[in-house]
Amino acid sequence: MTELIFRDDAYARSCSARVTLADDRGIRLDRTVFYPTGGGQPGDTGVLRLASGEAIAIVDTVKGEAPDEVIHILAPGSTLPAPGAEVTAEIDWQRRYRLMRMHTCLHLLCAVVPGAVTGGQVSDGKGRLDFDVPSASLDKEAIAVRLNELIAAGHDVSPRWITDDELAAHPELVRTMSVKPPVGAGRVRLMEIKGPGLIIDLQPCGGTHIRNTAEIGPVAIGKIENKGRQNRRINLAFAPP
Ligand SMILES: [Zn+2]
What we know:
By secondary structure, the chain is of the alpha+beta class. It has 4 helices and 15 strands. A hairpin with a 2-residue loop joins strand 9 and strand 10. The longest helix has 20 residues, at 93-112. Zinc ion (ZN) is lined by residues 103, 107, 191, 205, 207, 209.
């Protein structure tokens, strides 16, 4: 079991930790700031610094089989640290911050486009969501204007925890059909984006988010692609400065 620091503090860039296991799959730590691939968000990259000053490059992060198990993947040919070794775990913050901004932007896109989300992916600098809607209902310019308005308005983004039972009683909270909320632990984390007197988006999400929509900055809508019957893919990217 790994203490997931990013879950409570997405802005934590580094932490001290102890190696609990190191094998050919990667390194497990007792606590980590590294987000593992999941919910459409890529895993973090970065370094583990040993007391000797040696830095071990982490090229990807994934989930293990055990609950809350995080596997830090090394570059090929790296030397494994010994179990028990004290390290400083440090993510590539510039990259993670771009992923957090784009991830949170996809929540806003959910709020702008009515319809079930059938898939999605965040990558460095861009993102996409698939919606089960007829194509005629999507106006690219109108979506871009509304999305950038919500970003610029500087709405708060914050977590709210509910019980599994409360979530089961409100199935409408689950917007994304492709990502099942992590139920079974007794409670589920919702992410809420709130404006004055209204909830803009509220849905279960285990990813990392920024605190305020203004941090996203201007975005541009790319192609709206036809991905099968009633399945439209909306691509977006950070607007060039
Ligand atoms: Zn999210």
